[in-house]
Amino acid sequence: MATTIVNPLREGLRLARTPEPSTIVIFGGSGDLTQRKLMPALYNLALQRLLPGSFSIVGSARQPLTDDQYRAELHDAVGEHSRTKPLNEEVWKTFAEHLFFVPTPDDHGYDALRERLDHLDVELGTNANRLFYLATPPGSYAAIVKAIGVHGLRGRTGWARIVVEKPFGRDRQSARELTETIHQVFREDEVFRIDHYLGKETVQNILVMRFANGIFEPIWNRQYVDHVQITAAETIGVEERAGYYEQAGAMRDIVQNHLLQLLALVAMEPPAAFDDKAVRDEKVKVLRALRAIRAEDLPDHAVRGQYTHGFIEGVAVPGYREEPGIAKDSRTETYVALKGFVDNWRWEGTPFYMRTGKRLPKRTTEIAIQFRVAPHQLFSREASAGLDPNALVLRIQPDEGVSLKFGAKVPVQGIRIRSVNMDFDYGASFMVDAPDAYETLILDALRGDATLFTRRDEVDQQWAFVDPIIAAWAASPEPPYFYEAGSWGPPEADALIEQDGREWRKA
């Protein structure tokens, strides 16, 4: 009889990536986030056989749906929004057998939910392991968490974890209050604050680029880096989110979480290990070292803008104040540009420029590390006319990859230098579709790996940085600077970086 030889390294990797039997409970189970992101992600995990052998998914919302109605609704949603097409009907059929729905319009609904979860533990062997996902508006978080505790939804034996979507609070105080409410039911190590940017392949690749290669880390500091630019640009407006966006603005919506997390990953020191504690310990050190921007320093360090009518890809679009649900005199910022400094040994004096905005010409998120010019120029000014400073650019979306800009001789007689790019593209290099960020993060939450989630002290420090800026803008009689939809923001944002002798990258 032939003997099957198992590679212990591959077997260990497989076992490490297989979550324990568990139930996923999605509050807001019939909402937009569930239909567009969560359920397609779970289906794709099932398609890749990465879900536990025994699992169930229970949606919960106010609507009085039956299991069959819920499955039919999600079938269409997953078919439309899954990154893998067409829908594999055979896989879906098996997957749908593990989908259930329990209406929770009142306290009796939560009791019914507890009974259903207990029944599924016995029927499907999910061992009372439960992952709760808050896919509801933020105003419902506290009430749902309290209901989980009051109605005993955690289960009597297995583990319990909770995934909380952003925004986590609307300022530092409310974030602390929400944390205290959650801690009445869940320990901090059971809380997974999700930022989907951290699940993107290129964001994770920041750590790999720095710490798996010997050529980058030695020059990743103030001695060699002139400055860092972080850009998160969107072509869309507020869409259907007017009510939320009027209260949040670009600072709360993007800067407080996404951009500051990217800054922390770029600026952090090498962690002692690649685990949740070591990585997050280093990130929070960066956030603590981030220099506060005082009200009197705002003109030289921060610009806020708001888009007016214009054109996106040749199509006329309305201004922010003309969008449905937006006040005609709204002062909400749709654009933010910041100049920040990390006051530590590695980065002292190196500016970090951040910008984000809606209705910009191009949808892109990228991090550009621009290096200092060579200390001694051997070549004439005429020969070097086409030479730009070296730059390492990490493209996070939509075309994930990395490019390195360097100078090369133009193949002509004599010396003429031009900047060229060396490009790495995820899709072309690996010939596979990268997993969606939610696939990565849901799988990590099921495994109990919090490395790519934010910890309470990270959130606290992020709010500590943005709160004074938001307060100063609120107290100022000056409105945001206006910029035309389809432009790269207000001229004042250009002046912010140009006053230092630099300019924004042409993303």
Quick description:
This protein has 15 helices and 17 strands. The protein is of the alpha/beta class.
Description:
This protein is an alpha/beta fold. The chain contains 15 helices and 17 strands. The chain has helices at about 10-15, 30-45, 65-80, 90-95, 105-125, 140-150, 170-185, 200-210, 240-265, 275-290, 300, 425-430, 435-445, 455-475, 490-500; strands at about 20-25, 55-60, 100-105, 130-135, 160-165, 190-195, 225-235, 300-310, 310, 315, 335-340, 350-355, 365-370, 390-395, 400-410, 415-425, 480-485. It has a nine-stranded mixed sheet with strand order 16-15-14-13-7-12-11-8-17, sandwiched between helices. Helix 6 links the parallel strand 4 (about 130-135) and strand 5 (about 160-165). The model is unreliable at about 1-15 (pLDDT under 50).
